[in-house]
Amino acid sequence: MKPKMQPDKAVIFSGAGLSAESGLPTFRDADGLWNNHSWFELASPQAWASQPEVVQAFYNERRHKAWEAQPNAAHLAIAALEATCEVVVITQNVDALHERAGSTQVIHLHGELAWARGTSAEPKRYHLGGESIAMGQCCEDGTQLRPDVVWFGEQTRNMDVARRHLRNAGKVLVVGTSLTVHPAASLLGAVHYMAQKVLIAKERPEAMPPRFHFACGNAATLVPRLIQRWSSALSCI
User: Fold this and answer.
1) I want to staple 148 with a disulfide (CB 3.0 to 4.6 A). Which of 31, 77, 115, 208 is the partner?
2) 63 with 95: CB under 8 angstroms?
3) Distance CA 8, CA 106 (A)
4) With a threshold of 0.85, does the pTM exceed it?
5) Half-sphere exposure of 188 (CA within 13 A, CB side)
6) For 181-230, how does the pLDDT look when each residue is reduced to its tens digit (9 = 90+)?
7) Domains (ranges, CATH) in the chain?
8) Per-residue pLDDT tens over the stretch 53-96
9) Residues 108, 110, 165, 192: which is the catalytic one?
């Protein structure tokens, strides 16, 4: 039995392009000395095993930049929509810009830079904010702390709960993603067929999900306009 659609529920599915408008480079656009390293040398369990100092330094730099960045107008508009309806954010981003903008229900698929965890079978998590992780800084179980993010080859998180929210949302906004990162992109197959569906990006994705309206442009400009229309419509329900 298909879940009943909830007209007063909005799900936002966000990707790196949204954070880029706050000045954060995407992973593949990371600049400086990191241009000399492949993703496998910076973001994989094998890299952590062979050169943890390099991996730690890369993520410390990313964390600092993420904490210095500020939520843009799109982040703020998404958070403000909570005044009108239930809003669930499903994000591929590892920064905390949605939370810092005021969003209260944020599901992270690829982990969070603002947190660290140990490396045992049952690690504990520690909130860092924008602070660095030092080599030799350990979890209470004695294992080295690492970024609490999903590396290539590790399992994407929270897929089931994200899919459940998409199945009954009356409004779905996809923003700032090319939909090339899997399995996260496959979640859009769960969207209710009657939901209002909008995708905002600077370029049209090659794998455009069916029955989505595409709007080309900057998220910081287009998202607040869409949110205003949604808010006006919901206030009349």
Assistant:
1) 115
2) no
3) 17
4) yes
5) 27
6) 899 999 999 999 999 999 999 999 988 999 999 999 999 999 999 999 99
7) 1-24+70-110+152-237 (3.40.50.1220), 27-68+117-149 (3.30.1600.10)
8) 999 999 999 999 999 999 999 999 999 999 999 999 999 999 99
9) 110
